[in-house]
Structure formats: structure tokens, C-alpha cells
Design goal:
about 140 residues, alpha+beta, 3-stranded antiparallel sheet, single chain
Length: about 140
């Protein structure tokens, strides 16, 4: 299973179709990690209470870029409340506050970052986009 997760992370970091400009975005927020230089601009388009579309631009390590792309795939089509719950679960997974596999299923492909908690230097990389979208949704 670990190999599948690594392949998923590499695929998203190298070939992200979510890395683009979004026409007519409702929200735009910059996220920056000064520790390693990761920087993203996250754009979000809403349709009422539903996240209709998301996209990002920027640069950074494979973990930050893949985490951003997979987060977008995970949150698109969700309501704000659903998105907030998924974001909370992801952050708690990275902090090792949630380990229950059933609870983590709501993360879909974002569960691939489960073992990032074992690499303290990469935790902020994985969380950058999640904290950025959390700021947008507040």
C-alpha cells in the first residue's frame, strides 16, 4: 500500500492538472512556507455553499505540490461544512491525533500523506494548502 501512496504523490507532484489559473475565481489566497520556500496561490470558485472548482499555481517541493493537488481533488464538489470536516481530519491525521482507519476514509486519496507525520521537516509542506484553504473558508 505504501508504494501506491508514493506513486500517487509523485504523479500529482509531476503532472498536476489542478495546477492552472481559474477563470472567475471567487477567492484567492497565497500560502507560504518560509522554512523551505514553498509558495502557492490557491483559487476557489463557489456555487452557493458548494466548492465548484479549485486550482493552484506556485512552486515548492513534491510533497507540497502533490498535497495541494490531491486536496483539490478531495474537496471539489463538497459543501463548505464537508470541506471543513475533511480539512480538520487531514490536519489531525498529520498531527497523529486521528489514526482510526474508518475515520480516515473520508480523506480519499489524501490518506497518502499519512506517513508524513514520520518526517517532521515535511509536515508543514503537506499542510500548506490545507491551512490556506482553511483560511479561505473561515
Amino acid at each position: 500500500m505504501e508504494d501506491i501512496y508514493n506513486e500517487l504523490i509523485m504523479e500529482h507532484s509531476m503532472n498536476s492538472y489542478n495546477k492552472k489559473k481559474l477563470d472567475h475565481a471567487d477567492f484567492c489566497e497565497i500560502g507560504h512556507n518560509p522554512n523551505c520556500g514553498d509558495e502557492i496561490t490557491l483559487e476557489l470558485k463557489m456555487n452557493g455553499n458548494i466548492i465548484e472548482d479549485m486550482a493552484f499555481s506556485g512552486h515548492g517541493c513534491a510533497i507540497s505540490q502533490a498535497s495541494t493537488s490531491i486536496m483539490i481533488d478531495t474537496l471539489k464538489g463538497k459543501t463548505i461544512e464537508q470541506a471543513k470536516e475533511i480539512i480538520k481530519t487531514f490536519i489531525e491525521m498529520i498531527k497523529r491525533e486521528i489514526t482510526d482507519e474508518e475515520e480516515l476514509k473520508k480523506l480519499e486519496d489524501a490518506i497518502a500523506f499519512k506517513n508524513v507525520s514520520n518526517m517532521p521537516a515535511r509536515v508543514k509542506c503537506a499542510l500548506l494548502a490545507w491551512h490556506t484553504v482553511e483560511d479561505i473558508l473561515k
